[in-house]
């Protein structure tokens, strides 16, 4: 593990890259706007079967902005020889990978938690006075789970981007998986699709999962996918030439 004295400068450098790249800041804003706006619309339509997920339905689209954030933050290093310059300043590739992952996770988690809280408040207001409402415990769990889920998906995309060395390829793989394949496989494969990273993680946003995974075990499954992607990305960065 890198020592704090050597890790902090690397993390600071990665944070500067993120805050000065407008596309990354725009992705964070899109996470908040897409999730809250779509959640308000679906809450207003009403869903008596699962009003909690109706409020957080926008996460299905807000996560696209989160994975774009993670993929872009990593793939930008493979453009124009940027990674060679980065590794000249931070020769320890493990330290750089840890700093990059931390610089991605912290802002996404912060925005994700704000998004979860805003979605809960707006969704409750949109449900109306006569609608069934999730309990306070369910709402708090979903708000916190929203932040954790978005963070895991951003890191999942970051790991894949390190493997593929391309943001476009990463998004081209993940967006169809999240918006199309996951639902099609879910309809055809029974409970097997419950262990896909998006379906498992989003259990925390439901009042009743109705499957084999609970809210926190579902997030744990997503965390395992994310850990695998990050380890694969770190291995590729370590083995390949910059």
Question: In words, what does this structure look like?
Answer:
- This protein is mainly alpha-helical and 242 residues long.
- The protein contains ten helices and no strands.
- The chain is globular, with a radius of gyration of 18 Å.
- The longest helix has 35 residues, at 93-127.
- 77% of the residues lie in helices and 0% in strands.
- Helix 4 runs parallel beside helix 7.
User: Residue-averaged pLDDT, rounded?
Assistant: 89
How do the SSEs run, as a string of H and E?
HHHHHHHHHH
Q: Work out the helicity level.
A: over 70%
Number of strands: 0
Q: Using the alpha-carbon principal axes, give the shape.
A: globular
Could you name the ranges where pLDDT drops below 50 across 5 or more consecutive residues? Answer: none
Task: Furnish the topology, listing elements before pairings.
Layout: H1 4-19, H2 22-45, H3 51-55, H4 59-75, H5 82-89, H6 93-127, H7 136-164, H8 167-189, H9 197-201, H10 215-239
Helix pairs in contact: 1-6, 2-4, 2-6, 4-7, 4-8, 6-7, 6-10, 7-8, 7-10
Keywords:
0% strand, 242 residues, mainly alpha, single chain
Quick structural gist:
The chain has 242 residues and is mainly alpha-helical. The protein has helices at residues 4-19, 22-45, 51-55, 59-75, 82-89, 93-127, 136-164, 167-189, 197-201, 215-239. The chain is 77% helix and 0% strand.
